[in-house]
């Protein structure tokens, strides 16, 4: 390992040397155009043209000589140094925006950032791809001297990426590095080493990240989108120069696209698992159109550990997997067995989403920020100071059955066994017409435990106490009634981070204290248990000797008329 790192340092040192003789053979412009495929944000671009960049929830003034401001947060710095914001200036399209882009790039060429982050291969790859993808916008009409400096720097950056292979950054950033390397290979085909280097590493990187069912190993719909976007750009570059796409990339595009479609709600946005945000439905459509021509939706996702159940217009998405393994677990949430539920274009029950600012990110990773049970205020997984998962469930049980359009799902995990000596069981039922969702939450352990079922509501949903002890949910023209038994039901405040800025919302909480433990089989609040599963499924069975079982049942039913009683 030490020898490998030493060799990498040597290669990087040589890559950063002046071009010397190579400079005589630089093309005056990219031989083949590398087109950036994605739309920019005109509002962000106009703000940047005036000297202010907003990225990852932070806003700072930027301009020539300001690349290494110590006030920049790591997430903001990564966005600044990647130059992805060039597409926002391009979206503005004015001469002022073009000159702003050119001035910032030219300042980098003369005085590049000295931050170690600027030398991370994923950041370099994004930067080079952004320069080449927007060359026609900011460089084609520039002076010969500027274009010569730019092409020389692109060559050096390409050599840097090649020297840093294989990428040390786990996850989709490694794909960004290889995309940048491919962009240089396409723009400067006479330097054949770039394409050779790309083909040498692309298969291993893709195969290490894409699971057999098409899920990205990080198990995050947002990372799924980002990785698919990087691969789609590679495909476009290869098509532009009529090169054969590596088999691993072609296969990944075909397998990942159905998974991304499966994790969209009726409004077109992403489900909020493992740090995801809703994202733009138009952008998701565009990525999918660039990735594949088919419109297949994944129905079974055992490797990624998600279950998708659809009945008419209702959709239930469930996280039925163990958090991502190291080193891909920096975005993993303690949301095992959590779910999201929507009907048509209306989201009803959601997870709280992904935090952008560090404090929010840490808080929203906890189990309490998900539509699932929390036990004695603890999470089903714990995180270290470095952001990795320190403790996680080791076993998740999943049993899904479908009969005559109705869905039954039996789930379990042992994430609370080490901390509370309990196993968590969740049973969900979705009716064939999609208008009834029932759940049964069970803890089985050595002692009575305090626990709470939290069902977070989308901000567009209102909740009011009805006169019969139920809770009425209203969302546009939809009305749903919630009932629960086995605990105290309340409406509490919550937070929703489906966009870049968290906003207030509500949550339904069913709180269970040890003294209020319900005898199994009770029907105190008139909640019907989940319908019996089809023949062949495994029942929970009798309570084992020495164990205590605590049960909460709940139901959500669509109301045809708005009635409070």
TrEMBL record:
<feature type="domain" description="Heparinase II/III-like C-terminal">
    <location>
        <begin position="299"/>
        <end position="514"/>
    </location>
</feature>
<dbReference type="GO" id="GO:0016829">
    <property type="term" value="F:lyase activity"/>
</dbReference>
<protein>
    <submittedName>
        <fullName>Heparinase</fullName>
    </submittedName>
</protein>
<dbReference type="InterPro" id="IPR012480">
    <property type="entry name" value="Hepar_II_III_C"/>
</dbReference>
<dbReference type="Pfam" id="PF07940">
    <property type="entry name" value="Hepar_II_III_C"/>
</dbReference>
<dbReference type="InterPro" id="IPR008929">
    <property type="entry name" value="Chondroitin_lyas"/>
</dbReference>
<dbReference type="GO" id="GO:0030313">
    <property type="term" value="C:cell envelope"/>
</dbReference>
């Amino acid at each position: 390992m030490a020898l490998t790192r030493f060799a990498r340092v040597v290669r990087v040192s040589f890559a950063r040397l002046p071009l010397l003789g190579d400079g005589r053979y630089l093309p005056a412009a990219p031989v083949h155009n590398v087109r950036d495929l994605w739309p920019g944000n005109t509002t962000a671009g106009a703000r940047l043209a005036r000297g202010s960049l907003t990225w990852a929830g932070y806003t700072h003034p930027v301009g020539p000589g300001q690349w290494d401001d110590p006030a920049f947060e790591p997430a903001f710095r990564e966005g600044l140094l990647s130059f992805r914001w060039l597409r926002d200036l391009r979206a503005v399209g004015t001469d002022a925006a073009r000159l702003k882009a050119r001035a910032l790039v030219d300042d980098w060429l003369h005085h590049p950032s000295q931050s170690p982050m600027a030398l991370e291969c994923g950041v370099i790859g994004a930067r080079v791809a952004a320069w080449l993808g927007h060359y026609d916008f900011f460089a084609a009409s520039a002076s010969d001297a500027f274009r010569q400096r730019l092409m020389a720097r692109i060559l050096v950056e390409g050599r840097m990426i090649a020297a840093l292979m294989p990428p040390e950054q786990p996850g989709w950033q490694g794909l960004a590095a290889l995309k940048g390397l491919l962009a240089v290979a396409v723009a400067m085909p006479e330097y054949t080493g770039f394409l050779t280097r790309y083909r040498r590493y692309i298969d291993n990187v893709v195969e290490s990240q894409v699971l057999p069912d098409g899920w990205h190993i990080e198990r995050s719909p947002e990372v799924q989108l980002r990785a698919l976007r990087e691969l789609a750009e590679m495909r476009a570059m290869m098509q532009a120069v009529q090169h054969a796409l590596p088999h691993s990339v072609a296969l990944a595009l075909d397998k990942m696209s159905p998974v991304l479609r499966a994790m969209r709600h009726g409004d077109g946005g992403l489900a909020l698992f493992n740090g995801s945000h809703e994202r733009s439905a138009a952008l998701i459509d565009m990525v999918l159109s660039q990735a594949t021509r088919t419109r297949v939706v994944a129905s079974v996702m055992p490797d990624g550990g998600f279950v998708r159940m659809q009945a008419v217009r209702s959709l239930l998405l469930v996280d039925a997997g163990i958090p991502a393994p190291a080193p891909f677990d920096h975005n993993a949430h303690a949301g095992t067995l959590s779910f999201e539920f929507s009907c048509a274009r209306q989201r009803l029950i959601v997870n709280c989403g992904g935090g952008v600012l560090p404090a929010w990110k840490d808080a929203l990773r906890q189990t309490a920020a998900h539509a699932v049970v929390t036990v004695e205020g603890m999470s089903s997984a714990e995180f270290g100071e470095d952001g990795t998962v320190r403790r996680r469930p080791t076993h998740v049980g999943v049993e899904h059955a479908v009969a005559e359009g109705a869905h039954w799902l039996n789930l379990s995990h042992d994430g609370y066994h080490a901390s509370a000596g309990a196993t968590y069981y969740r049973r969900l039922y979705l009716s064939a017409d999609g208008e009834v969702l029932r759940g049964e939450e069970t803890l089985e352990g050595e002692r009575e435990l305090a626990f709470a079922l939290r069902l977070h509501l989308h901000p567009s949903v209102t909740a009011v106490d009805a006169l019969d002890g139920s809770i009425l949910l209203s969302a546009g023209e939809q009305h749903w009634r919630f009932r629960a038994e086995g605990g105290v039901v309340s409406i509490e405040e919550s937070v929703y981070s489906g966009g870049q800025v968290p906003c207030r919302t509500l949550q339904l909480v069913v709180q269970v204290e040890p003294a209020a433990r319900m005898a199994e089989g009770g029907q105190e609040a008139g909640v019907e248990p989940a319908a019996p599963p089809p023949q062949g499924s495994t029942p929970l069975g009798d309570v084992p000797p020495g164990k205590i079982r605590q049960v909460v049942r709940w139901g959500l039913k669509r109301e045809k008329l708005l009635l409070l009683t």
